[in-house]
Design a protein that fits this description.
heterodimer; A: mainly alpha; Fumarate Reductase Iron-sulfur Protein, Chain B, domain 2; about 0% strand; globular; B: alpha/beta; Glutathione S-transferase Yfyf (Class Pi), Chain A, domain 2; Rossmann fold; 2 domains; 4-stranded parallel sheet; 13 helices
Chain lengths: ~200, ~290
């Protein structure tokens, strides 16, 4: 993991700038641990959310990126709701995922591919086509066991006519123009987020 | 009552029965739905980590289309993830002048503008507050007495925007369930996370969430949901969750409008019941006309 952080040093400035931004979201953290006590996924995390906010405020990017705590946030917003300082903790978790994806952290590769392939499908078709999305995800994962995990569900859904195979009835609305415009705006207004080529 | 309808992607594929039941129940209640023409994906939970602005712009695109149809309209959203994304975009358009300007600059690429003049409403909000048990009960021709229903709210229709219910101890489904003649299962898991996409990306963690909810539903005849992600997590992985728990956790899981539709007397076909992944035989027999 340390090696990975070292090789990613070209992106580290970007990561540290982005981490500063998250720091400004959680600066007022009083380390009370309400977030940890509220989190449904805390038991599976390798570091408590409370500790992670401390590391964010200390700027210790490498340790944060080596953790799977933020990747296990399932966006339930319970910590955000209960935080006595009213901090946007779920949004901060989301932003940490963004840093890990932009830095192409090895450890978070499968989550990144899941999100990226999802967005590629949206970009191309305007709507999510579950079949097209899962095919892209499986292809990108290059793992023979991942499709097997989903096969029983896929077969069940197909049996129910719940997946669109090939061309569905709806007309696709490609969103390339919107995606490109957003990328342009982000290049000029804030730190760029690296994106895999869409194609 | 008129609503601009945003079905969202899931309701065109894996959650088709939610779409069918929503349309059927709203029609039976005398509400008119106009589907937003040319709607696209809200970005789900995938857009925001990749780009916050992309997430807001994808949702704002749909709000802009809604405004073109009726600029003071009410956007009806059955999926909780879509609801939250549209709410966030709406919030940025209404309360953040700089955000509104940037979003509209992005939308200029697709020749649209959004002001946030429409209202974004979750289906549960509309069923509980606009229609309400007092309006729905007289439509119900069949009693579901003898059944116990566990109301599962999930997260994103409740949090972070406490719009129509208590964000931790929600109760808005209870009068609706009681109107059908069924009893409400008392439990603490109604607003606890189902694991969301962790069930796909980190199944060892996600399935623990599913297990805990299914276990807590023991004693109920069925669970009702108001979100395609919650529904899929609770109905598609029951065999796996049962193996993990070492006990049989199989239980019927319906979308809330399917339950209401059954009480109203709509047919299984109109409510898409044959599309559900988890309907126990005992429930099917109970529902025979």
């Amino acid at each position: 993991m340390n090696l990975q952080i070292a090789t990613a040093s070209s992106a580290s400035e970007n990561g540290n700038n982005a981490l500063d931004k998250i720091g400004s979201m959680v600066r007022a953290c009083i380390q009370c641990g309400t977030c940890t006590g509220s989190c449904p996924n805390a038991l599976e995390m390798d570091m408590t959310p409370r500790k992670m906010w401390r590391l964010v405020n200390l700027g210790r990017l490498a340790e944060i990126m080596a953790s799977r705590t933020f990747i296990l946030c399932s966006d339930c917003y319970t910590c955000t709701l209960r935080c006595p300082r009213g901090l946007p903790l779920t949004d901060a978790m989301e932003a940490l995922k963004g840093i890990a994806f932009a830095r192409r952290e090895r450890r978070h590769r499968s989550s990144r591919l899941f999100y990226e392939k999802f967005m590629q499908t949206v970009r191309r078709h305007g709507r999510i086509r579950e079949m097209a999305f899962m095919t892209r995800y499986f292809t990108a994962m290059k793992s023979p066991t991942v499709p097997l995990r989903f096969a029983p569900l896929g077969i069940k859904l197909m049996g129910k006519g719940k997946v669109e195979i090939g061309l569905g009835k709806t007309v696709a609305t490609p969103l390339d123009a919107l995606f490109e415009k957003v990328a342009d705006l982000e290049r000029t207004t804030c730190a760029p987020l690296e994106n895999e080529g869409h194609g | 009552m008129n609503y601009l309808y945003y079905p969202g992607c899931s309701l065109t594929a894996s959650a088709r029965e939610y779409d069918l039941a929503t349309r059927a129940v709203m029609a039976a209640a005398g509400a008119r739905l106009t589907e937003i023409d040319g709607w696209t994906c809200c970005g789900a939970s995938a857009a925001a980590p990749i780009s916050h602005l992309l997430s807001l712009s994808l949702s704002a695109r749909n709000l802009a289309l809604a405004e073109q149809t009726a600029d003071d309209g009410q956007v009806l959203v059955p999926c909780s993830a879509c609801y939250l994304n549209l709410k966030k975009a709406h919030n940025a358009l209404r309360n953040d002048a700089a955000g509104r300007a940037t979003i509209n600059e992005a939308l200029s690429a697709v020749n649209l503008t959004a002001t946030g003049s429409v209202r974004v409403r979750h289906l549960l909000d509309v069923l509980a507050k606009d229609l309400g048990a007092q309006h729905l009960a007289p439509l119900m021709k069949r009693t579901l007495s003898g059944l116990t229903v566990a109301p599962y709210y999930g997260c994103q229709c409740l949090r972070p925007y406490p719009e129509f219910d208590d964000p931790e101890r929600p109760v808005s489904m209870e009068p609706l369930i009681e109107a059908t003649g069924a009893a409400v299962h008392a439990w603490e898991m109604g607003s606890r996370c189902c694991g969301a996409s962790l069930v796909s990306t980190h199944p060892e963690a996600g399935l623990n969430r599913v297990c805990a909810i299914l276990k807590a539903a023991t004693g109920a005849d069925l669970i009702v949901t108001v979100c395609p992600m919650c529904q899929m997590n609770l109905d598609a992985w029951q065999a796996k969750a049962s193996r993990m728990a070492g006990e049989n956790l199989a239980i019927t899981v319906l979308y809330l409008p399917q339950l209401l539709g059954l009480a109203i007397g709509l047919s299984a076909q109109e409510l898409g019941l044959d599309l559900n992944l988890a309907i126990e035989r005992s429930f099917r027999e109970r529902m025979k006309p």
